[in-house]
Design a protein that fits this description.
391 residues; mainly alpha; 20 helices
Protein backbone atom coordinates (compact mmCIF):
# COMPACT_ATOMS: atom_id res chain seq x y z
CA UNK A 1 0.00 0.00 0.00
CA UNK A 2 2.76 2.46 0.88
CA UNK A 3 5.21 1.59 -1.92
CA UNK A 4 3.07 3.01 -4.72
CA UNK A 5 2.46 6.42 -3.10
CA UNK A 6 6.16 6.67 -2.20
CA UNK A 7 7.32 5.88 -5.72
CA UNK A 8 4.68 8.18 -7.15
CA UNK A 9 5.81 11.04 -4.90
CA UNK A 10 9.47 10.55 -5.82
CA UNK A 11 8.65 10.33 -9.52
CA UNK A 12 6.55 13.50 -9.47
CA UNK A 13 9.12 15.35 -7.37
CA UNK A 14 11.81 14.43 -9.91
CA UNK A 15 9.60 15.43 -12.85
CA UNK A 16 8.61 18.76 -11.30
CA UNK A 17 12.23 19.47 -10.33
CA UNK A 18 13.24 18.99 -13.96
CA UNK A 19 10.38 21.22 -15.11
CA UNK A 20 11.42 23.86 -12.57
CA UNK A 21 14.98 23.58 -13.86
CA UNK A 22 13.75 24.38 -17.36
CA UNK A 23 11.76 27.36 -16.09
CA UNK A 24 14.67 28.71 -14.03
CA UNK A 25 17.48 27.82 -16.45
CA UNK A 26 18.39 31.44 -17.21
CA UNK A 27 18.26 32.67 -13.62
CA UNK A 28 21.49 31.24 -12.19
CA UNK A 29 24.48 28.97 -12.94
CA UNK A 30 23.55 25.29 -13.49
CA UNK A 31 25.26 23.92 -10.37
CA UNK A 32 23.70 26.56 -8.15
CA UNK A 33 20.27 25.86 -9.65
CA UNK A 34 20.65 22.10 -9.32
CA UNK A 35 21.60 22.43 -5.65
CA UNK A 36 18.60 24.66 -4.93
CA UNK A 37 16.15 22.33 -6.66
CA UNK A 38 17.53 19.16 -5.06
CA UNK A 39 17.08 20.70 -1.62
CA UNK A 40 13.70 22.21 -2.47
CA UNK A 41 12.13 18.97 -3.70
CA UNK A 42 13.98 16.64 -1.33
CA UNK A 43 12.43 18.33 1.72
CA UNK A 44 8.78 17.46 0.88
CA UNK A 45 9.75 13.93 -0.17
CA UNK A 46 11.57 13.34 3.12
CA UNK A 47 8.77 14.91 5.13
CA UNK A 48 5.93 12.89 3.59
CA UNK A 49 7.90 9.62 3.58
CA UNK A 50 9.29 9.71 7.13
CA UNK A 51 7.77 12.47 9.24
CA UNK A 52 4.19 13.30 8.21
CA UNK A 53 1.84 12.00 10.90
CA UNK A 54 -1.12 14.37 10.49
CA UNK A 55 -0.04 16.82 13.19
CA UNK A 56 0.73 19.63 10.75
CA UNK A 57 -2.78 19.92 9.36
CA UNK A 58 -5.07 22.93 9.61
CA UNK A 59 -8.76 23.29 8.78
CA UNK A 60 -8.64 24.85 5.32
CA UNK A 61 -6.12 22.36 3.95
CA UNK A 62 -8.37 19.36 4.59
CA UNK A 63 -11.39 21.21 3.21
CA UNK A 64 -9.55 22.03 -0.02
CA UNK A 65 -8.46 18.42 -0.40
CA UNK A 66 -12.01 17.23 0.24
CA UNK A 67 -13.27 19.42 -2.61
CA UNK A 68 -10.81 17.82 -5.02
CA UNK A 69 -11.50 14.29 -3.79
CA UNK A 70 -15.28 14.66 -3.93
CA UNK A 71 -15.24 16.11 -7.43
CA UNK A 72 -12.86 13.39 -8.63
CA UNK A 73 -15.03 10.77 -6.94
CA UNK A 74 -18.04 12.05 -8.86
CA UNK A 75 -16.15 11.52 -12.13
CA UNK A 76 -15.19 15.12 -12.88
CA UNK A 77 -11.86 16.06 -14.40
CA UNK A 78 -10.16 19.48 -14.25
CA UNK A 79 -11.62 20.19 -17.69
CA UNK A 80 -15.05 18.56 -17.50
CA UNK A 81 -15.92 20.34 -14.25
CA UNK A 82 -16.08 23.60 -16.24
CA UNK A 83 -17.90 22.14 -19.23
CA UNK A 84 -20.71 20.68 -17.15
CA UNK A 85 -23.29 22.88 -15.44
CA UNK A 86 -23.62 20.40 -12.62
CA UNK A 87 -19.85 20.18 -12.24
CA UNK A 88 -19.42 23.93 -12.02
CA UNK A 89 -22.29 24.13 -9.57
CA UNK A 90 -20.71 21.43 -7.42
CA UNK A 91 -17.40 23.29 -7.47
CA UNK A 92 -19.08 26.44 -6.16
CA UNK A 93 -21.10 24.56 -3.55
CA UNK A 94 -18.14 22.57 -2.21
CA UNK A 95 -15.95 25.70 -2.21
CA UNK A 96 -18.65 27.53 -0.22
CA UNK A 97 -18.49 30.64 -2.39
CA UNK A 98 -16.74 32.16 -5.38
CA UNK A 99 -13.21 31.27 -4.27
CA UNK A 100 -13.18 28.12 -6.40
CA UNK A 101 -9.65 28.26 -7.86
CA UNK A 102 -7.91 26.32 -5.13
CA UNK A 103 -10.62 23.67 -4.95
CA UNK A 104 -10.10 23.19 -8.68
CA UNK A 105 -6.33 23.10 -8.11
CA UNK A 106 -6.84 20.22 -5.66
CA UNK A 107 -8.97 18.43 -8.25
CA UNK A 108 -6.10 18.87 -10.71
CA UNK A 109 -3.61 17.52 -8.18
CA UNK A 110 -5.54 14.39 -7.22
CA UNK A 111 -6.33 13.71 -10.90
CA UNK A 112 -2.68 13.97 -11.97
CA UNK A 113 -0.87 12.52 -8.97
CA UNK A 114 -3.39 10.61 -6.87
CA UNK A 115 -5.75 10.94 -3.89
CA UNK A 116 -3.03 11.89 -1.42
CA UNK A 117 -2.47 14.89 0.80
CA UNK A 118 0.94 15.48 -0.75
CA UNK A 119 -0.50 15.79 -4.29
CA UNK A 120 -1.43 19.52 -4.14
CA UNK A 121 1.55 20.19 -1.84
CA UNK A 122 4.17 19.01 -4.33
CA UNK A 123 2.47 21.11 -7.02
CA UNK A 124 2.68 24.11 -4.68
CA UNK A 125 6.43 23.57 -4.39
CA UNK A 126 6.59 23.89 -8.18
CA UNK A 127 4.41 27.02 -8.03
CA UNK A 128 7.03 28.69 -5.83
CA UNK A 129 9.59 28.00 -8.57
CA UNK A 130 7.37 29.91 -11.01
CA UNK A 131 7.24 32.76 -8.48
CA UNK A 132 11.04 32.69 -8.26
CA UNK A 133 11.24 33.07 -12.06
CA UNK A 134 8.93 36.11 -11.96
CA UNK A 135 10.93 37.57 -9.07
CA UNK A 136 14.17 37.16 -11.01
CA UNK A 137 12.70 38.95 -14.01
CA UNK A 138 11.30 41.69 -11.75
CA UNK A 139 14.77 42.25 -10.26
CA UNK A 140 16.38 42.51 -13.70
CA UNK A 141 13.74 44.99 -14.88
CA UNK A 142 14.21 47.01 -11.68
CA UNK A 143 17.84 47.59 -12.64
CA UNK A 144 19.72 44.96 -10.67
CA UNK A 145 22.64 43.06 -12.12
CA UNK A 146 22.78 39.33 -12.92
CA UNK A 147 24.73 38.26 -9.82
CA UNK A 148 22.30 40.03 -7.51
CA UNK A 149 19.24 38.68 -9.36
CA UNK A 150 20.58 35.11 -9.30
CA UNK A 151 21.39 35.22 -5.61
CA UNK A 152 17.98 36.73 -4.84
CA UNK A 153 16.28 33.92 -6.77
CA UNK A 154 18.20 31.25 -4.86
CA UNK A 155 17.43 32.96 -1.56
CA UNK A 156 13.73 33.03 -2.43
CA UNK A 157 13.64 29.37 -3.46
CA UNK A 158 15.09 28.25 -0.11
CA UNK A 159 13.66 30.98 2.12
CA UNK A 160 12.24 29.59 5.37
CA UNK A 161 8.79 31.20 4.94
CA UNK A 162 8.45 30.12 1.32
CA UNK A 163 9.50 26.55 2.15
CA UNK A 164 7.28 26.35 5.24
CA UNK A 165 4.05 27.44 3.60
CA UNK A 166 4.49 25.46 0.37
CA UNK A 167 6.11 22.22 1.53
CA UNK A 168 4.15 20.90 4.50
CA UNK A 169 0.51 22.07 4.30
CA UNK A 170 -2.05 22.22 1.53
CA UNK A 171 -2.94 25.93 1.41
CA UNK A 172 -3.54 28.34 -1.44
CA UNK A 173 -1.03 31.00 -0.45
CA UNK A 174 1.67 29.94 -2.95
CA UNK A 175 -0.72 30.58 -5.83
CA UNK A 176 -1.73 33.92 -4.30
CA UNK A 177 1.92 34.96 -4.04
CA UNK A 178 2.51 34.06 -7.70
CA UNK A 179 -0.54 36.02 -8.87
CA UNK A 180 0.39 38.99 -6.66
CA UNK A 181 3.92 39.04 -8.07
CA UNK A 182 2.54 38.96 -11.61
CA UNK A 183 0.05 41.74 -10.83
CA UNK A 184 2.54 44.09 -9.16
CA UNK A 185 5.15 43.48 -11.85
CA UNK A 186 2.58 44.31 -14.55
CA UNK A 187 1.58 47.48 -12.71
CA UNK A 188 5.21 48.50 -12.17
CA UNK A 189 5.87 48.03 -15.89
CA UNK A 190 2.73 50.02 -16.66
CA UNK A 191 4.06 52.79 -14.41
CA UNK A 192 7.19 53.00 -16.53
CA UNK A 193 5.44 52.91 -19.90
CA UNK A 194 1.64 52.57 -20.07
CA UNK A 195 0.81 50.04 -22.77
CA UNK A 196 -2.33 48.18 -23.73
CA UNK A 197 -0.52 44.88 -23.20
CA UNK A 198 0.18 45.58 -19.52
CA UNK A 199 -3.35 46.91 -19.06
CA UNK A 200 -4.85 43.69 -20.45
CA UNK A 201 -2.46 41.63 -18.34
CA UNK A 202 -3.50 43.57 -15.24
CA UNK A 203 -7.19 43.04 -16.01
CA UNK A 204 -6.78 39.28 -16.52
CA UNK A 205 -4.76 38.79 -13.33
CA UNK A 206 -7.27 40.89 -11.38
CA UNK A 207 -10.09 38.73 -12.73
CA UNK A 208 -8.23 35.59 -11.58
CA UNK A 209 -8.12 37.01 -8.06
CA UNK A 210 -11.91 37.04 -7.91
CA UNK A 211 -11.78 33.24 -7.73
CA UNK A 212 -9.11 32.94 -5.02
CA UNK A 213 -8.66 36.17 -2.96
CA UNK A 214 -10.90 38.97 -4.15
CA UNK A 215 -9.44 41.97 -2.33
CA UNK A 216 -5.82 41.83 -3.61
CA UNK A 217 -6.46 43.96 -6.74
CA UNK A 218 -8.23 46.55 -4.57
CA UNK A 219 -5.17 46.84 -2.31
CA UNK A 220 -2.89 46.99 -5.35
CA UNK A 221 -5.07 49.72 -6.87
CA UNK A 222 -4.97 51.69 -3.63
CA UNK A 223 -1.18 51.33 -3.54
CA UNK A 224 -1.06 52.67 -7.10
CA UNK A 225 -3.27 55.58 -6.15
CA UNK A 226 -1.08 56.48 -3.17
CA UNK A 227 2.02 56.33 -5.34
CA UNK A 228 0.38 58.38 -8.08
CA UNK A 229 -0.78 61.07 -5.63
CA UNK A 230 2.65 61.34 -4.03
CA UNK A 231 4.36 61.23 -7.44
CA UNK A 232 7.01 58.86 -6.14
CA UNK A 233 9.24 57.37 -8.84
CA UNK A 234 7.24 58.48 -11.88
CA UNK A 235 8.04 59.51 -15.39
CA UNK A 236 5.87 62.69 -15.31
CA UNK A 237 4.06 62.09 -18.61
CA UNK A 238 2.82 58.69 -17.38
CA UNK A 239 1.39 59.87 -14.08
CA UNK A 240 -2.12 60.60 -15.35
CA UNK A 241 -2.53 57.20 -17.05
CA UNK A 242 -1.26 55.45 -13.93
CA UNK A 243 -3.62 57.40 -11.67
CA UNK A 244 -6.64 56.72 -13.89
CA UNK A 245 -5.83 53.01 -13.96
CA UNK A 246 -5.43 52.96 -10.19
CA UNK A 247 -8.72 54.79 -9.68
CA UNK A 248 -10.50 52.36 -12.02
CA UNK A 249 -9.13 49.35 -10.12
CA UNK A 250 -10.18 50.80 -6.77
CA UNK A 251 -13.68 51.68 -8.00
CA UNK A 252 -14.34 48.36 -9.77
CA UNK A 253 -13.03 46.23 -6.94
CA UNK A 254 -14.71 48.51 -4.40
CA UNK A 255 -18.05 47.94 -6.10
CA UNK A 256 -17.43 44.20 -6.15
CA UNK A 257 -16.53 44.13 -2.46
CA UNK A 258 -19.45 46.38 -1.52
CA UNK A 259 -21.92 44.17 -3.34
CA UNK A 260 -20.79 40.96 -1.63
CA UNK A 261 -18.66 41.38 1.49
CA UNK A 262 -19.08 44.90 2.87
CA UNK A 263 -21.34 43.81 5.74
CA UNK A 264 -18.91 41.09 6.84
CA UNK A 265 -15.98 43.51 6.67
CA UNK A 266 -17.79 46.15 8.71
CA UNK A 267 -18.60 43.61 11.43
CA UNK A 268 -14.96 42.58 11.83
CA UNK A 269 -12.90 45.71 11.20
CA UNK A 270 -11.76 48.02 14.01
CA UNK A 271 -9.96 51.21 12.99
CA UNK A 272 -9.19 52.55 16.46
CA UNK A 273 -5.58 53.79 16.87
CA UNK A 274 -4.93 51.36 19.72
CA UNK A 275 -6.21 48.37 17.76
CA UNK A 276 -4.27 49.28 14.62
CA UNK A 277 -1.05 49.86 16.57
CA UNK A 278 -1.37 46.56 18.40
CA UNK A 279 -2.37 44.84 15.17
CA UNK A 280 0.70 46.13 13.34
CA UNK A 281 2.94 44.72 16.05
CA UNK A 282 1.18 41.37 15.78
CA UNK A 283 1.35 41.36 11.97
CA UNK A 284 5.08 42.04 12.09
CA UNK A 285 6.05 39.67 14.90
CA UNK A 286 3.76 36.63 14.77
CA UNK A 287 4.24 33.85 15.42
CA UNK A 288 6.55 33.92 18.40
CA UNK A 289 8.57 30.68 18.75
CA UNK A 290 7.30 30.11 22.29
CA UNK A 291 3.63 30.30 21.22
CA UNK A 292 3.62 28.07 18.13
CA UNK A 293 0.87 25.46 18.51
CA UNK A 294 1.45 21.82 17.42
CA UNK A 295 -0.50 22.11 14.17
CA UNK A 296 1.70 25.07 13.19
CA UNK A 297 4.91 23.32 14.19
CA UNK A 298 6.30 23.83 10.69
CA UNK A 299 6.58 27.53 11.59
CA UNK A 300 8.81 27.08 14.64
CA UNK A 301 12.17 27.54 12.89
CA UNK A 302 10.78 30.18 10.45
CA UNK A 303 9.41 32.15 13.42
CA UNK A 304 12.88 32.35 14.99
CA UNK A 305 14.52 33.40 11.73
CA UNK A 306 11.77 35.92 11.05
CA UNK A 307 12.34 37.71 14.36
CA UNK A 308 16.11 37.70 13.84
CA UNK A 309 15.68 39.26 10.38
CA UNK A 310 12.86 41.67 11.22
CA UNK A 311 14.98 44.80 11.73
CA UNK A 312 17.30 43.94 8.82
CA UNK A 313 14.19 43.57 6.65
CA UNK A 314 13.04 47.07 7.58
CA UNK A 315 16.47 48.47 6.75
CA UNK A 316 16.50 46.48 3.50
CA UNK A 317 13.09 47.87 2.52
CA UNK A 318 14.51 51.38 2.90
CA UNK A 319 17.44 50.41 0.67
CA UNK A 320 15.07 49.04 -1.98
CA UNK A 321 13.01 52.25 -1.84
CA UNK A 322 16.11 54.34 -2.59
CA UNK A 323 17.68 51.99 -5.12
CA UNK A 324 14.79 51.39 -7.52
CA UNK A 325 11.65 53.51 -7.98
CA UNK A 326 10.06 50.47 -9.66
CA UNK A 327 9.98 48.69 -6.30
CA UNK A 328 8.17 51.40 -4.39
CA UNK A 329 4.78 50.03 -5.48
CA UNK A 330 5.38 46.55 -3.93
CA UNK A 331 6.66 48.18 -0.74
CA UNK A 332 3.56 50.39 -0.49
CA UNK A 333 1.43 47.31 -1.20
CA UNK A 334 2.99 45.38 1.68
CA UNK A 335 2.52 48.37 3.99
CA UNK A 336 -1.18 48.44 3.10
CA UNK A 337 -1.51 44.67 3.70
CA UNK A 338 -0.01 45.07 7.17
CA UNK A 339 -2.19 48.09 7.92
CA UNK A 340 -5.39 46.46 6.64
CA UNK A 341 -5.03 43.29 8.69
CA UNK A 342 -3.91 45.29 11.71
CA UNK A 343 -7.55 46.44 11.86
CA UNK A 344 -8.89 42.84 11.82
CA UNK A 345 -8.26 41.38 15.32
CA UNK A 346 -9.12 37.84 14.27
CA UNK A 347 -6.89 37.72 11.17
CA UNK A 348 -3.40 38.78 12.16
CA UNK A 349 -1.40 35.59 11.77
CA UNK A 350 1.64 35.01 9.55
CA UNK A 351 -0.52 33.52 6.81
CA UNK A 352 -2.10 36.91 6.10
CA UNK A 353 1.36 38.48 5.89
CA UNK A 354 2.57 35.74 3.55
CA UNK A 355 0.77 37.13 0.50
CA UNK A 356 3.49 39.81 0.36
CA UNK A 357 6.32 37.47 1.37
CA UNK A 358 8.35 38.27 -1.73
CA UNK A 359 8.72 41.89 -0.56
CA UNK A 360 9.92 40.68 2.83
CA UNK A 361 12.34 38.20 1.23
CA UNK A 362 13.67 40.86 -1.14
CA UNK A 363 14.21 43.32 1.72
CA UNK A 364 16.00 40.73 3.87
CA UNK A 365 18.19 39.72 0.97
CA UNK A 366 19.09 43.31 0.08
CA UNK A 367 20.22 44.02 3.61
CA UNK A 368 22.31 40.81 3.66
CA UNK A 369 23.77 41.59 0.22
CA UNK A 370 24.90 45.07 1.24
CA UNK A 371 26.16 43.85 4.61
CA UNK A 372 28.25 41.04 3.13
CA UNK A 373 29.67 43.31 0.44
CA UNK A 374 30.59 45.92 3.02
CA UNK A 375 32.13 43.22 5.19
CA UNK A 376 34.20 41.95 2.27
CA UNK A 377 35.34 45.47 1.42
CA UNK A 378 36.03 46.32 5.04
CA UNK A 379 33.95 49.50 4.91
CA UNK A 380 30.48 50.10 6.34
CA UNK A 381 30.47 53.86 5.85
CA UNK A 382 30.80 54.20 2.09
CA UNK A 383 28.40 56.96 0.91
CA UNK A 384 27.69 54.93 -2.22
CA UNK A 385 26.72 51.76 -0.33
CA UNK A 386 23.02 52.49 0.04
CA UNK A 387 22.46 54.14 -3.34
CA UNK A 388 24.50 52.13 -5.84
CA UNK A 389 22.62 49.36 -7.61
CA UNK A 390 24.14 45.95 -6.86
CA UNK A 391 25.71 43.97 -9.69
Amino acid sequence: MMAAPFLQLVAWAAFLALAAGAVLARTMPPRMLAACLVIKFLVPVAYFVWFADGTWTLIDDLRYLRVGLELAGQGYTPLSVFLSRTGLGQLFVLSEGVHVMYGWFNLLAVTLIGPYYYSPVILNVFITCLSARVLWRFAVEAGYGPRYASALTAFYLLHWDVVAWSTFVNVKDSIIVLLTLLLLRALARFQRAPTRRELVRTALISLAFVWIRFYVPAIAGLAMLIQAITGSGFVPRHRRAFMLTALAMVLVMGWFIQSRWLGIIRAQIHWSPGQVSLGLVRMLTTPQPWSVSPEYGFLFIPSILHLIMLVPAMVGAGMLWRESPMLRLPIIYMGLVLLLFAAFPGEQGPRYRHQAVFVLVWAQFTFAWHFLRALAQGAFTSPQLATRLPT
